[in-house]
Specification:
Distance between the termini: 10 Å
Number of helices: 10
Shape: globular
Strand content: 25-35%
Structural class: alpha+beta
Helix content: 25-40%
Length: 333
């Protein structure tokens, strides 16, 4: 019999998670799957649960939650034959936006079932993972690693209080606005393969995907999940913000607007690079994040691990996200 494990974070999203995942379990069971339901109990527990499932030969692990939960599950499945099936039920759903999976909506309580239908008709893609080592942490990033501004925001905001989680993205935005005036700048040396950049920066993003910030910003129009390369975006601190803190939030807003309008090539404050290995050293030490989760401080090294994860992508996922066509789930099982 086909076996699946559904791992969910009871604290993810805005509403009762158990009530959302139980219909999903029943949906998969009615289609011939033996499904085990596994709630997480602490940070990092999803990784342990996923690793146990892979060791037990489970065919598919459904990761129900936001990008953080999916990243933890990916860490547990990296290098195994077990397939990650993303089931978006969290606050941040960048991966779901990339794959064009149905996402949770207040007016669409059936979104998890619709996502399950799409996944069962999907294809298995082998995608790259980013192995990250910071001064205090090591592990895989599924989507992106950020150093500087977004690492600072994660450090200040997470873990989020219950009221913020209930409000979803609005709650996150309220918290972020309260600390934007304190965004730090850094003097950084960034080595991408044989290229080295030394300058003052606000933010460094190392990504294997196109979307960023919960999927709300298109950071790259050409990134691929399985091409064996990172996309590296450097956002300069600027001469003014090097001595005056207040304009830094405005400068980041300018950069992200340019990125969203695909005008970053015309902005001298944005540097775009590509490579397989990235080494970052900063002064002072800067906070880091991976997939929206705290990841320690610089110095930091990222190395691409090609095709390290089997991902179940729905038919709605753009073919242009991958170099390979993928294999239908039914053909594998």
């Amino acid at each position: 019999m086909k076996r699946a494990t559904l791992i969910f974070n009871p604290q993810a999203g805005q509403l009762n998670m158990a009530a959302k995942v139980e219909p999903v379990v029943n949906f998969w069971r009615k289609r011939g799957w033996r499904v085990a339901l596994r709630p997480t109990e602490a940070p990092g527990h999803a990784t342990e649960l996923a690793r146990r499932a892979a060791d037990a030969g489970v065919h598919v692990v459904l990761a129900a939650g936001g990008d953080g939960t999916m990243s933890q599950v990916a860490n547990g499945l990296a290098g195994s034959e077990t397939i990650l099936a993303p089931l978006p039920i969290g606050t941040s759903n960048a991966l779901a936006r990339e794959l064009r999976l149905p996402r949770p909506q207040l007016l669409d309580p059936n979104a998890p079932i619709e996502a399950s239908e799409a996944l069962l008709a999907g294809r298995v893609q082998q995608i790259d993972l980013n192995f990250v080592r910071s001064q205090t942490a090591a592990g895989y990033a599924l989507l992106w690693t950020g150093i500087g501004a977004d690492g600072f925001l994660v450090q200040q905001i997470e873990p989020r209080p219950a009221w913020s989680k209930r409000l979803g993205p609005i709650g996150y935005s309220i918290q972020a606005l309260s600390v934007l005036h304190r965004l730090p700048a850094m003097h950084a040396v960034v080595q991408v393969d044989n290229q080295t950049v030394e300058t003052d920066l606000l933010l460094i993003v190392i990504s294997t995907t196109r979307l960023y910030a919960g999927g709300l910003i298109a950071l790259s129009s050409s990134a691929l999940f399985d091409d064996g390369h990172f996309e590296v975006s450097l956002f300069r601190a600027g001469e003014v913000s090097s001595w005056l803190e207040t304009p830094r939030a405005g400068l980041m807003a300018r950069y992200l607007t340019a990125v969203q309008l695909n005008l970053q090539e015309w902005d001298p404050g944005v540097i775009n690079l590509s490579g397989k290995r990235v080494v970052v050293e900063t002064e002072p030490k800067m906070p880091c994040q991976t997939d929206g989760e705290w990841a320690g401080y610089t110095p930091l090294t990222c190395e691409i691990h090609p095709r390290a994860l089997r991902l179940l992508a729905p038919p709605s996922a753009p073919a242009a996200l991958f170099t390979q066509p993928g294999v239908p789930l039914d053909d594998i099982l």
